[in-house]
Every structure is written in structure tokens, then in C-alpha cells.
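Thread: Modeling a multi-component assembly for a lab meeting

Hi all, long-time lurker, first post. My supervisor asked me to bring a structural picture of a complex we are working on to next week's group meeting, and I have zero experience with this. I have the sequence lines for every component (472 residues in total). Could someone generate the structure of the whole assembly? Inputs are pasted exactly as I received them:
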Amino acid sequence: MERHIVTDEDIDVLLADLLDLYGYDFTEYSRASLKRRINRLFVLDRFPSIAEFRYRLISDQDYLRRMVEEITVNVTEMFRDPIFYRTIREQVLPVLATHPFIRIWHAGCSTGEEVFSMAILLQEANLLQKSLLYATDINPRVVEKLRKGIFPLRQMKQYSENYMASGGKKDFSDYYTAKYDHAKFDENLSRKMISSTHNLVSDRSFNEFQLIMCRNVMIYFDKDLQDKTLTLFDDSLEKLGFLALGSKENLKFSVIGKKYLQLENKEKIWRKVI
Amino acid sequence: MAQSYLNNTYNLVVIGGSAGSLEVVLKILPQLKPGSSASIIIVMHRKITYDFSLSDLLASKTKWNVLEADEKQVLKHDHIYLAPADYHLLIEKDHTISLDVSEKVNYSRPSIDVTYESAADVYHSTLAAILLSGANDDGVEGLRKVKSSGGLTIVQDPKTASVAYMPQHAINKVAVDLILAPEELGNLINQLGYPKGR
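Re: Modeling a multi-component assembly
Sure thing. I ran the full set together rather than chain by chain. Output:
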């Protein structure tokens, strides 16, 4: 079986279609990962040829949504990297607590597992009632999932372990109601969430925040797009605000790096000092 | 292929392994000589642990530089890059590393198949892929892709593997070029990266 059926030239054509017809610009995404995702979709949906793949994309709006959802990566989990969340709990929330009103932006939030994690931390610190969590993603479908607050029950054991490793003291199952094979999270947690589609490539800043979380999103961007996105975050962050990234992401060589100081424990959390 | 591979210059060696592969890697590393034309990427399945640094352990065994791979890192010769736990590692056309947290492949992240296939797409005949001990199917499809892109495919002799399943499966499915014992692998990598034409 030959797996790489979609060539680099085919990718260029498909990306041009996405941009020209729909305004989705993936041309500054890291190519190797994008190529693998497009190949995977091509095989998964059993297209006989690239021409038919392209025709479907051009003629079917619903397929566009599927394509955008499948070629971007939506893998996420609650309390992903528990030590990171412990650091948010112990070093970031006490600072946010001094504000009369807390605004947090989860950029590229996918299906919202990390947004719910943050809401739980805020609730446990008695800060949720004065907080707003803005959750945005490029995919309309994942934003819809986030609004429902329903996640697969089979993942709760892992999430509960992550929660405890992040310093959680309660019984994690207090936060959801299990029904059949899913877990519905407490509506008190989602009451403070504002969710919307937002494209980091083309959309602008829409507010000013004290904390921006964008984890494992920019690893799919090329250097220029990373710098553009970081500039957008910098424009959207208050002075002394926090920017939190994924475990393999870094501000060190970025265009805004000089204005930020990483927390001493070397978790991927930076504070805007200038 | 016979001995013709020795006339070729290799710029990248990707070593993939699962259960029982760490001990083999620890045998290979001390044999590596500096001055190679090649970089090495190691993709090993492992449990995520928070306090144990595999890259430090590997670095203590070799003269080559050992780094845990970061995104946008440029591959350099005489350097060893370790795929980080919980990320797939891919190679861009400009020989930089990309990381990816998409779905597991063969129940694995990092997946050996993902790195083999991506490396084959960029390095073609200057890629050598080595598959070691393991209890998983990961790496077999990738070896096929390396082979069809003109790269060299090497499998650890299953008789020497603490878990023979993975290398044996590769031998059954792909016409691999070489089947070698752990003791022979370090020397092979030295030969593959030895500057030719002088």
C-alpha cells in the first residue's frame, strides 16, 4: 500500500482552494504535518483521485467543515501536563485574584477540555464568579462540542489522575454527571465561558486579557506565522499578564521574547514585563 | 542491494524501537565515531515520566551531541535527536523538525511509522531506517515507505531481540536490506556516515 498519494503540488492546489474560496489560510502551517493530515483524510474518505477530492471541497460546504476539522489537530485532554496546572494554581491564580475582574483567553481551545480544567481551578480558588473564559477555535464543530460540556466517560479515570497530580483535593467525579458512556460537566463551570470561532491566522485581537492559554497550537505554524500569532497575543495581553504555551513551545527565539520572563520553575508560562 | 549501500552517503539515520530497545541503543551509542555526515533520530516508545531524563542517560554514552528534539530545530550531523514523549516527530523539506500531538498511531505517540514516512519523503536514498526490538506493529509500514523511496532498511536480528515480534514482523512484511545483531549496528552507522569519495 502506497500511503503518500497526495503530492506536494496537490497540497498547494488544495490550500489555494481553501484560501481563495473560503478564506481559510493554511499556507503558513508546517508542511510535513499538514501533508500527513491531508493524506490521512484522502485515504479515510476513500477518494479515487485528487480531482474528486478537490471537486468535493469546491462544491460542498459541509465537506469544507469536515476538512478543516480533520486537517487541524484537535487532540486535547483535561489537566494536560498536571505540573503545568499545578503551577497555574500556585503561581498564576494568586496574582489574578488581585484583579477585580479576570479575563482569560483560550486560543485554539479545541473541544474545551482545558477550558473546563481552568474553570475547575478558578472555582476551587473561589475566583470563578468574577472570571470570564473566552474560548476560541478555528473549527465551528469543536466550539459546538465545547458548549455542550459533554466528554467521553472512558477518559475520566485519566483526567481524575491528572487532576489529582495538579494538586486537586476534591473527588473529581463531583464535577460531572455520568450518563451512559459520557460525562456531562456541571453547568456552573460553563456559565462563565464565552465561546466563538476565531482564526489566529486572519482574525484580530478582540479584548485585553490577564492570561492567554494557547497550548500545542503554534507547533503547527511556520516561524512567520508563529511570530504573527505571538504579536496578536502580545497586543491582547495586559502588562504583567501571563502567556501559557504547550510543553514543547517556546518564546525564547520569538519576536516578543524580550518582553517576557519565564516562570522560575521552567514551566511554559511567561509574564509580560514590558 | 549487496554492498552497494556502502558507496552511498547517508544524511539521516532513524532508529525506532519499543520494548527491549533501550538496551540496544545503549550498545550502539558508545561505538559512534564523530565526523559523520549523518544525523540520528531516535524514536522510542516509552512511558511519560516526569523526573527521569532519557536524553541525559543517552548523552552519557556517546561523543555525539544528544538533544531532546524541539520544533524548528535544524538537523545537524554528529547530533542525536530524541523524539519527545507524547509527540510525533516529522521532518520538513528544509531539514527542520516538526512536532505533532495528533492521534496515536499503532497505539503509540511518538510513532515510528510517522517519523519513517516523513523522513523518507525528504531524505529518499540518503535515509537509513533501523528497527529494533518491540512488541508492536509500529515501524513496519514506515520501513516499506523508506524502502520504496530508495532508503536503506535495517532490522535487528529477532534472535538477538528481547522481544522479537516487531523485527520479525518487519522481516515477514518487507524485503529489508540488512538483518544485524546489536553489536554490528554502531559500526554500520559509522560506515553509512563515513565521507565518501576520498
